Amino acid sequence: MIISKAAHTTSSFKLLATHSHPTSTTGNPPKVVHERRDAVHREWKLVARASATAPLTLSIGLVQRNLERAEEFMKAVSHPDSDQYGQHWTAQKVVEVFSASDSAIADTKTWLLSEGVDAGRISTSAGRNWIKVASTVGEAATLLDATYGVYENDDGARIVACESYSVPAAIKAHIDFITPTIQFDSGMASTRGSVNRRRDAFAPKTKKLPPHQHPGVDSLKNCSEVTTPACLRALYGIPAKVEPVAGNSYGIVEFAPQSYNQHDLDGFFSAYGHLPNGTSPILNKIDGGFLSDEAGSGIRGESNLDLCYAIALTYPQNVTLYQVGDSVAWNPATNNNFLDAIDGSYCTAGGGDDPLWDAAYPHDASTAGAYAGPPQCGVYNATKVLSISYGRDEAARPASYNARECMEYMKLGLMGVSVLFSSGDTGVSGVTGHCLNPDGSYAPVWADWGRFNPLFPGTCPWVTSVGGSALPPNGTVGRDREVVAYAFAPSGGFSNVFARPAYQAAALATYYARHDPGYNASRYNDTRHVRGFPDLALAAQDYVTGLDGGFQAFSGTSASSPAFGAMVALLNGERIKAGKAPVGFLNPVLYAHPEMFVDVVEGSIGGCGTPGFSAVAGWDPASGLGTPSFERMRRVFMKLP
């Protein structure tokens, strides 16, 4: 992964490598600015100077070794022309190859000790990538030549942050970033509404189904109006008869308070799945693993949707649910808390996630449903396929933070895990409809102007981003080609942070040569050298889902991802039965074999006062490579070693 040049980023945060200005404190080594914030998100206002005596835990992210070779390493195990295809790494090899150098750790600790920090307050992560310092605001300000203030948003939440910070010139090259410093949460509310307290969830649109729209279990008569397991099997050739395969696994990740309901699953499986009552996922609880008993689509919708289709399409193969986080609304769990639980080396000693965004445990035990234990690190193995229907604006957090998380997905890919993310449901606008000002800050919600706001993790080059398609109105399975989903606008576009991966180079070159969208840098990153997303599309409209004892229909790419994940899990089963490794990171094979897809050439995704991007022949930001054929994918992947 390579971060694109700062001149072409719209993030409000810039990594300063060549424009630093030395500062110094008498008796201490000279320092240079490491990161500076250009603007404060409009949701936050400076209200006070932070108290010097307030406790503050600094987390220092050390530069990992060999990240510049990520593309080389991944190509070796995932490109179809590689003689090492499928020879995935062990977790131990990942740690050995990427951990920070001995000198990075030693030099950083030496600096801290020279500044008077007690050795007992300094700890190093098991993965040797983080150093944590138990400190105060005053001490941190001195260490970093920073001025900390208290910022407040419209909801009354407060954080401590600074405008810039500096580190000694001699150790600058050892440090990725330090938190808390310039970071700000964007203050975005979930588009699910106030019932759902997730800050970064994609919200499937929901509607109640009239009685005449309830199709029979195997009916294909109105797949253009409602989507069922039978419709998906018919659209993509997904096999109806599945054999469980030892060593195969498929995981769905949910974040509290989203919670599935077994009664709702039973109702759906009875009507649409031919599955027995009580069919449920393997439950892996993480940091509390809170399951709410509240009703309504805001709490049950996402989890019920994901599990109804993940299980129905793969049964009797087991599906694992990673239920992440507790009921504490002001400090919800994030992708990084999940990554901690499946990769202990990602944790710092005592937990080192960013306290501004990632839930920092233990929580106050007096709060009902709170998790008061230590953060769970390395307690579960990752399943061979992971589908995650949550994301955020790429601009919501610093490029350094996004890059760190993205590289964790790269490491999972090296270990043979396919990581799938929903692309999003708001076209070229952000999660809650924010476009961007020229400086990277947020324009007013649903403004009809501004730069496009791509969504992360879909822009990470080491995940497979799944967009949305649909049969045209009154379309028929087997007769009509799918179009871009139109009940909502699937998200797509180009990253402002991540460079174009090699596997996507040819597809993007063809797209620009034949279908230049016509916008300039005032609208999007038009350098032609950045990651484009999504990678593919799948049916995304009106998925019949069990809810509150009945049925509702949900639309959104949060339906597409778990459905595609089921296809990947079934492919893994075929390969494992043949004595082969799971498919792992998919994208190099997908782009090398576009014949596995049915091209989507109709429809568009708009926003920011523009038509956005249109579906065209070949890859495009509206539909990726198109919709997959299971049989074509099976033929390609089964020929690989």
TrEMBL record:
Major place of localization? Answer: secreted
Where located?
A: Secreted, Extracellular space
Keyword Transmembrane helix annotated: no
Which residues constitute the signal peptide according to the record? none
Q: Which positions does UniProt annotate for Ca(2+) binding?
A: D599, V600, G618, D620
UniProt cross-references to SUPFAM superfamilies, sorted A to Z: Protease propeptides/inhibitors, Subtilisin-like
Q: Where is the Peptidase S53 domain positioned along the sequence?
A: 226-640
Per the record, a Pfam family?
Pro-kuma_activ
Names of required cofactors: Ca(2+)
GO CC term, one of those recorded: extracellular region
Recorded protein name is: Peptidase S8/S53 domain-containing protein
